[in-house]
Design goal:
Layout (H helix, E strand, L loop, with lengths): L2 E6 L3 H8 L3 E6 L16 E5 L15 H12 L7 E5 L5 H13 L5 H11 L7 H10 L5 H9 L11 E4 L1
Parallel strand pairs: 1-4, 2-3, 2-4
Antiparallel strand pairs: 1-5
Helix pairs in contact: 2-5, 3-4, 3-5, 4-6, 5-6
InterPro entries: Prot-tyrosine_phosphatase-like, Tyr_Pase_AS
Organism: Paenochrobactrum glaciei
Protein name: Tyrosine phosphatase family protein
């Protein structure tokens, strides 16, 4: 079964060592410094630079449709034999949104609300970035179901950073 691993940046090296992912997605602010403890080919690594914001704001880079397309196109090259790892700074918002988006994209028949509940169970602090989810909802033609499902689970538990978790597809 295909697995998506979500981790905060502080636990990136440990998660890579434990899960040995086939592909890695980094979702960080434009000025973030990230050192991968492994060397990956360009086909197996995607870094997207945008801030963890839900509305455009001067001086910040908001998530846009191009970011969703990049995530979806990158995941299209994943065969699922080894995990796909996603990380952001805290492992709470951008990375959990990307994991949720990929779960919905890779399983078109998946019930959006059930997946949101699974996400909450696996990651009590998960607060998926609502802008990323809304953009993906539109791109994937989910007619508001993804956005509503994430609204329904609400804000996750307060935390400085999330814990590493595995989402089995």
């Amino acid at each position: 079964m295909a697995e998506i691993i979500v981790t905060p940046q502080s636990k990136l090296a440990e998660a890579i060592a434990q899960y040995v992912p086939q592909k890695i997605i980094t979702l960080v602010s434009p000025d973030a410094q990230v050192s991968l403890p492994v060397t990956l080919s360009a086909d197996d690594y995607l870094r997207l630079n945008f801030n963890d914001i839900t509305e455009p704001s001067d001086g910040f880079v908001a998530p846009e449709a191009e970011h969703i397309h990049a995530i979806l196109n990158f995941a299209a090259g994943w065969n699922g034999e080894k995990p796909l790892l996603i990380h952001c700074f805290a492992g709470i918002s951008r990375s959990t949104a990307a994991a949720y988006i990929l779960a919905c994209a890779l399983n078109p028949a998946l019930n959006e609300h059930e997946m949101a509940l699974v996400l909450r169970q696996l990651a009590p602090s998960a607060t998926p970035n609502s802008r990323l989810v809304a953009l993906a909802d539109e791109i994937l033609g989910r007619k508001g179901a993804m956005r509503q499902a994430i609204q329904n689970i609400g804000r996750g538990a307060d935390a400085f950073e999330g814990s590493v978790f595995k989402l089995t597809l």
